[in-house]
Design a protein that fits this description.
Elements (H helix, E strand, L loop, with lengths): L32 E5 L3 H12 L3 E5 L11 E4 L2 E4 L4 E3 L3 H9 L13 E6 L7 E6 L10 H5 L6 H15 L13 H7 L4 H16 L8 H12 L8 E3 L4 H15 L3 E3 L6 E5 L17 E6 L2 E5 L1 E4 L3 H7 L16 E11 L8 E5 L5 E4 L1 H4 L5 E8 L9 H15 L8 E14 L19 E3 L12 H19 L12
Parallel strand pairs: 1-2, 1-13, 2-9, 6-15, 13-19
Antiparallel strand pairs: 3-4, 5-8, 6-7, 10-11, 11-12, 14-17, 14-18, 15-16, 16-17
Helix pairs in contact: 1-8, 1-12, 2-12
Length: about 500
């Protein structure tokens, strides 16, 4: 059957399956049907989990690819990631996802946390420090690194240690933390402006996409407690050694196909509505959900289903939600977004020998070597990841070039004699939800008031900031909620995401 045939006419591998799950739990013929709207990590995860449990799943994605905001594209001889995405060893749901799509070896973790930090504004010239861990138990695993960290004074280091202990005592379930900003709390713990810049924001801006003054204490505490204080290796860093599209698009699509999921790209959903079983023309004999089934409309087609997972950004979810599905749906519109700017530079020679480093005293935040991952065989390709980029996200490329190339020459002496073959930027204006104080009260759970309708996405109430980990956790949470409503087991799902 042609790929451009109407959805209702396309072959569905699940329709001819002979697996025992073809009989639903009520004894009616035919498996429960699910439609997942959105092909980012949350949607892919939901679709895989529901299909693994024996449901007939259709995944609808408006873009021509999967992967959401973690994707790749081709630019000349480069395979370019739209942004530098990393994860930590504590991101166990994302590791589950990588394993599920057979991609674990393509995104390895450091053996031990090791972050070079270069301060180019030091009074005695550029100075390199490192944030490293040892094999000692928490919190001693970071003690040696902290006591020798050259970017803080001895007094500042001592106060950082006390603040870390205070952070470890915070109760992440306390809703009062969500209403406070992280910077104010740090100030009360005796943290100087320099300590916030050289340590707390160094980590926080990259993980939260916000500086301490703009970040919820609840989310910041979650990041630092989980990443630095939960286990010695929790903060070890992992990142893709191939283009993200190879993982989140190619391998994810292969896993979806193998699971029997019908994946439709370039298919934008225009409406989602619930139809009571008693309505004329409804398929009440097949619907497995009480009080009716769902109709999902795309241009020229209507798809009937028992379950719908909206795995789309908050504004898109708000537009598709039927009336009464959630209390105060307008609160979704009060969840703001935050941008990330990525600066890409291709040199004619190697100018950086490390895989990555972080920067102080410069507009540059983090620099990654993407040469091998991009497929470049001649010269070097660096990517600068600039989070919380509200002031720069709309700057002209020429202005960004004039700002960042001289900064790279300060950081990398070898770049001074190198020729720049290409300079370009990628902009994600709505890269993440903004982790502002009070955002926790706005984030919805997976379940809605409408039977059979569920929400997923990193912006939902995962307890995590907007990360790949949060997206996967939201997908498993939505799938688990749907399976529970159907009376189906969900033991194959990532357990900690419940």
């Amino acid at each position: 059957m042609r790929d451009d045939a109407p959805l209702s006419q396309r072959a569905d591998p699940a329709e001819t399956a002979t697996d025992p799950t073809d009989a639903d739990t009520t004894g009616r013929p035919g498996r429960a049907a699910a439609v997942v709207v959105g092909g980012g990590l949350a949607g892919i995860t939901s679709a895989l989990a529901l299909a693994d449990a024996g449901l007939r799943v259709t995944l609808l994605e408006g873009r021509p690819r999967l992967g959401g905001l973690a994707f790749s594209f081709q630019r000349g001889n480069l395979s370019v990631d739209n942004g530098q995405h990393v994860y930590l060893r504590c991101c166990t749901a994302y590791q589950w996802f990588l394993d599920r799509i057979a991609a674990t070896d393509l995104a390895p973790l450091q053996r031990r946390l090791d972050v070079p930090v270069l301060d180019v504004a030091a009074s005695r010239g550029p100075r390199l420090g490192r944030l490293r861990r040892t094999a000692l138990p928490v919190p001693l695993h970071l003690a040696q690194s902290l006591t020798t960290y050259p970017h803080l004074s001895l007094a500042e280091r001592a106060k950082v240690g006390r603040a870390a202990l205070a952070l470890g005592r915070l109760d992440l379930t306390d809703p009062a933390l969500d209403r406070q900003d992280f910077a104010s709390w740090l100030a009360r713990q005796g943290q100087s402006a320099r300590a916030i810049e050289a340590l707390w924001d160094l980590v926080g801006v990259a993980t939260l996409n916000a500086r301490a003054g703009d970040a919820s204490l609840g989310l910041a505490a979650m990041v630092f407690k989980t990443g630095l204080l939960s286990a010695p290796g929790a903060a070890d860093i992992g990142w893709a050694q191939v283009p993200l599209g190879d993982i989140h698009d190619t391998l994810a699509r292969k896993a979806l196909d193998a699971a029997g999921v019908r994946t439709e790209l370039r298919t934008r959903v225009t409406s989602v509505a619930r139809t009571p079983d008693s309505a004329p023309g409804s398929r009440s004999g097949n619907s497995l959900m009480k009080n009716g089934h769902w109709t999902v409309e795309v241009p020229g087609e209507r798809i009937e289903t028992d379950i719908v997972v909206l795995a789309v950004p908050q504004r898109e979810a708000h537009a598709l939600l039927p009336s009464g599905a959630v209390a105060d749906p307008d609160r979704f519109l009060r969840i703001d977004t935050a941008p990330i700017l990525n600066v890409h530079v291709q040199y004619d020679r190697t100018v950086l020998k490390r895989p990555f480093f972080a920067v102080l005293g410069s507009p540059v935040q983090w620099v990654f070597d993407r040469t091998r991952a991009s497929g470049l065989t001649d010269g070097q390709y660096l990517a600068l990841s600039q989070s919380a980029a509200q002031d720069e996200i709309d700057e002209p490329v020429a202005k960004l070039r004039a700002r960042y190339l001289p900064e790279l020459e300060k950081l990398l002496p070898a770049a001074r004699d190198a020729r720049v073959r290409d300079f370009f930027v990628t902009r994600e204006r709505t890269a993440t939800f903004a982790p502002t104080p009070g955002v926790g009260a706005l984030r919805p759970g997976a379940r809605t008031e409408a039977p059979g309708l569920y929400l997923a996405g990193a912006w939902t109430a995962t307890g995590w900031p907007a990360t790949m980990e949060g997206a996967v956790r939201s997908g498993t949470s939505a799938a688990r909620a749907a399976l529970t409503a159907l009376g189906r087991p969900g033991g194959h799902l990532f357990e900690e995401a419940a």
